[in-house]
Amino acid sequence: MIRLLLLVAVLFVGAQASALELKGAFTQGTLITGKVAPGSSVLLDGVPLLALPDGSFVFGLPRDAKSNALLSVRRKDGSVAQRKLKIRKRNYRIQRIDGLPKRKVTPKKRDYKRIAREQKLLNAVRHRVTQIVDFKNGFVWPARGRISGVYGSQRILNGKPRAPHLGVDIAAPSGAPIIAASDGVVSLTHEGMFFTGKTIQIDHGLGVGTIYIHLSKVLVKEGQRVRKGELIGRVGKTGRATGPHLHWGLTWKTMRLDPSLLVGPMPKVQKK
Fold first, then answer.
1. Domains 7-86 and 94-262 alike in fold
2. Which end of the chain, N or C, is less packed with Cβ atoms under 10 Å?
């Protein structure tokens, strides 16, 4: 797994400090948090970003982000500060997984309406941009176990090329605890999606969300506020899975990012 030090960039303008502060690893698949002077507007490659009254904002760099991006800040006095971001390119693995049910790799025609309906549910909650900043409280691993799948890898399922894996898989015994990776509000629960099985999505504010899938049990309800480290579910193998594990994903709106860049190394599982 890629290990990256967090980079903090601060742009100084004259004698005034911190016209723009950015925190995150400038690499494909990362979540960047930022701060500007209150009342400033922020644009990424010309597209406006929501900045809260205190100047907080976030954005994501997708799996295949280009090597450069331009962040512009227009302050209340009309002056503009810009920062050119150099984005590190990643080399993604190829992962082959065999033994999946044929229908979960190549769905039948009648399955596609269900798949589209379930994706619409996920996209709807991901598009909600709430003005909370729970993501500022940091993130932890939501389960303990062996990393069996990494972000960005090209998946070959039953010998057929499929979409890249856009999350982290944690292999653990069925029934093992799953905790909330950070403070937030449960924005979606589902007892059985076609691909993801039992599913939980948590909103951490400003479009930042985490998803927990293939669960055996969902222990929270939509609208419930959860704290970092709180039990929310149990590991399972529902949906498209060959064995018990947690797929943990990070999203900014509908952009899927690498959650492992938000946490340190996986804590060792203590043997009883």
1. no
2. C
Rounded to whole angstroms, the Cα distance separating 229 from 209 reads 16
Considering only CA atoms, which of 169, 165, 159, 164 is closest in space to residue 102? 159
Determine the straight-line distance between the first and last CA of the chain, rounded to whole angstroms. Answer: 27
Integer Cα distance of 215 and 218 in angstroms: 7
pLDDT 10s per residue in the chain (272 long)? 444 433 433 333 332 434 789 999 899 999 999 999 999 999 999 999 999 999 999 999 999 999 999 999 999 888 898 999 999 999 887 777 676 677 666 778 888 899 899 999 999 999 999 999 999 999 999 999 999 999 988 767 677 666 788 999 999 999 999 999 999 999 999 999 999 999 999 999 999 999 999 999 999 999 999 999 999 999 999 998 889 999 999 999 999 999 999 998 898 766 55
CATH number of 94-262: 2.70.70.10
| Arch. (CATH architecture) of 7-86 | Sandwich (2.60)
- Exposed / middle / buried, residue 117 (Cβ in 10 Å: 0-12, 13-18, 19+): exposed
Contact between 15 and 6 under an 8 Å Cβ cutoff? The reply is no
